[in-house]
Amino acid sequence: MPNLAVKNLLYQLADDQLILGHRNSEWTGFGPILEEDIAFSSMAQDKLGHSLAFYSLLHALGEGEPDTVAFMRNADQFHNCQLVELPIGEYDFSLIRHFLYDNAEILRFEALSQSSHPEIAKIATKLKGEVKYHVLHANTMVKQLGSATAESINRLQNSLDYAFPYALGMFEPSEYGQELHDTGVFIGEAALQTEWLARITLVLEKTSLKLPNVSTIQPVYGGRKGQHTSHLQPLLDEMAEVFKIDPSAEW
Amino acid sequence: MTQNSSSIDPRVNRLHLETDDHPTPKPALDQLETFEVFHQKKVGAAYTYVGPVHAANEEIAFLFAKEQYSRRAICSGMWVAKTQHVFLSGYADDATSIYDNLPTLSEVPNAAEQSYEIFHLKKRGKAHQHAGSVTARSPLHALYVAKEVLQTSPAVNVWVIASAHVLRQEQDQDMWATTPDKKYREAMAYRVQDKIEKFKAEQKA
C-alpha cells in the first residue's frame, strides 16, 4: 500500500495541530491580558485550520470525512505527540509549549513545502506564512519574559524543564521515515530535530533561560504510535461533546 | 468565600474558583502602556490608523496589533508607535484646515534634523491617514514643513511621529497571505440566519 507512509505522516501533522489548537483555545476568555487572549486564540484557530487542510487531504486519499476523523476517534487512534495533549497549565507552560512546538512546526512546513508530494507541498507553502507569525509571537514573548523578572524567568525555566522531554517526543522516529526520506516526501525527524535545537538555542541565548542538556534527557515517545497520557481522552470527550449529540447535523 | 463549581463551561470548573464576597479594589494604573496602530490594505496604499493596543514594547505591540486589527481585514503591512510619541496638532472645524491655524513657531529650533511621519485626519469621524514624511527639527517644525511640502487637501487634525519611533512590519507579507481564506472567522460565512429560517420553515410544515 504505497499511500500508507504518506497517510501516517498526514495523521501526525493533522493530529498535532488539532490537539494543540484545541488546547490553546482553552485560553479563550482566560488569557493574561485582552490582546494576548485574542492573539493566542487566533493562533489556536489557525492550528485548527491547518489540521483541517491535512484531514481534507487525507479524505481525498480515501480516509473519512474531516469531522468524523477529528471527533469520532479514541485516544489510541491519535498520532499526535504527547507534548500537545498536556493540559494548558498556567500561562508559562502554554507559552513554552507554543515556543517549542512552533519552532519545530515552521521547519516542518519549510521542509514539506519542498516535498515531492505535490499536494503536501502546496498546503505547506500556503500555510507557512501563518506559522511564521506564530514563531515570531513565541520568540518575542519568550525573549521578553525570559529576561524580565525573577518570577517570569523561574516560571519559564520550570516549564521548559518539564516540557523539554515531551518536546523531544515531537521527533519520534517513524517506521516510515526511511521511505518518506527516500521518496523525497519528507526529510525526516532527525534532521528536523538538529535544526530545531539550533533555532531555539539562538532564542534562549538572548534570555536568562537555560536549555536542558539534550544528551541526558530521555525523550517521551509513544504518541506517534497511539500511546498517550491520561489527559488526551478527556480532551477528546470534551471536544466532541456537542458534535456527538447529533453527528449528522449540518454546521 | 463560597465554592463556585457549577459553570456550564468546563474550563471554569477546572479553575476551582472561589467567589470572593469582599473583593479588593483594583489597583490604579495596572495596565501596560498603549501603542497606536496603522495598517496598510494593499502594497502602495497609505497607512491608516486602526486603533490602540496595550503592550510592554513595540515588538509585542505589533504581535497584538496583528491579531487585533488584521485577523479578518486584508492587510499587507503594519506600523506601530508608542502613544506618547504621537504629537498632536489642534483641531480645526470640518471644511477648514488646521494648517491655516498652526501655533506660532517663533524660530526654527536648534535641534538636529530628523524625519517625521505626518498623518492627516481629513474629516472628523474618519481615521488618520499617512500623508507623507518630512525632515524637520521638532514636531511643531514638522507641521510647518508639512504645510509647505505635502500640499494635500485640508486636514482637521494632524499627528506627527518621529520616523525613528515607528516600528514597521512591511517585509513579511506572507503572514497575512491566507486572511481572505479564513472564512471561518466571518460570522456571515456560517449563514446562521438561512439555517434558522430553514429550520422554522420545516417546523411550520
Short description:
The complex is a heterodimer of chains A (251) and B (205). By secondary structure, chain A is mainly α.
Sketch the major β-sheet of chain B.
Answer: 4 strands, antiparallel
Morphology of chain B? extended
Determine the fraction of residues in helical runs of chain B and give it as a percent range.
10-25%
Overall mean pLDDT of chain A stands at 96
Task: Describe what you observe in this structure.
The complex is a heterodimer of chains A (251) and B (205). Chain A is 64% helix and 0% strand. Chain A is built from nine helices and no strands. Chain A has helices at 4-25, 34-60, 66-71, 91-112, 118-145, 150-168, 177-182, 189-204, 232-245. The longest helix of chain A is centred in the middle third of the chain and has 28 residues, at 118-145. The two termini of chain A are 34 Å apart. The model of chain A has no long low-confidence stretch (mean pLDDT 96). In chain B, 27% of the residues are buried. Helix content of chain B is 20%, strand content 25%. The model of chain B has no long low-confidence stretch (mean pLDDT 90). The termini of chain B are far apart.
